[in-house]
Amino acid sequence: MSKKNSRNTKSKIVSAAWKLFYDNGYENTTVDEIIVESGTSKGSFYHYFESKDSLLGSLAYLFDEKYEQLENEIDSSLSSIGTLLFLNRQLFEMIENTVDLELMKRLYSTQLVTKNEKQLLDHNRVYYRLLRKIVIKGQEINEITKAMSVNEIVKYYAFCERAIIYDWCLCNGDYSLSDSASRMMPFFMERITNK
Prior knowledge:
Blueprint: H1 3-24, H2 31-38, H3 42-48, H4 59-71, H5 80-98, H6 101-113, H7 126-140, H8 150-170, H9 177-189
Helix pairs in contact: 1-2, 4-5, 5-7, 5-9, 6-8, 7-8, 8-9
């Protein structure tokens, strides 16, 4: 199986699983339903995932699919900071509208206790590559400070996003995640904006 077909199969499984988790709830979704929804096979499912529980960490990769889509929608007239704020708003709206709050809580809790791969911190993800690309461009055109390294800025930005999501989860989604981020992220972005 080619690398692209392999990635497509895994992506189909992840997308189908998260759609079903949102529609039916995590507990009420079976592996067999995920297989049917994804149009794949049981062998394919177990090739990529040990169990339904192992899909929890895959949410980070579902976010990456959104980032790949958004990368093509970025308005070229936006500043680097504007681009980061656009990506944040779009992702947080996606989370609010398509990801069950309980699943976000599970994702964060599994990342806290896992001894294995922490998907949220995997710097090979599309998320981190895209952030680095935006920050590099921002530094090249003097919109983003050069007092911090690209990696420090990306780490800071990701930290800010995780903090906002974590608080939203702690508060049981009692407020709009995307509206809160629209108020908080510009405050955080001041730290990296070239003055």
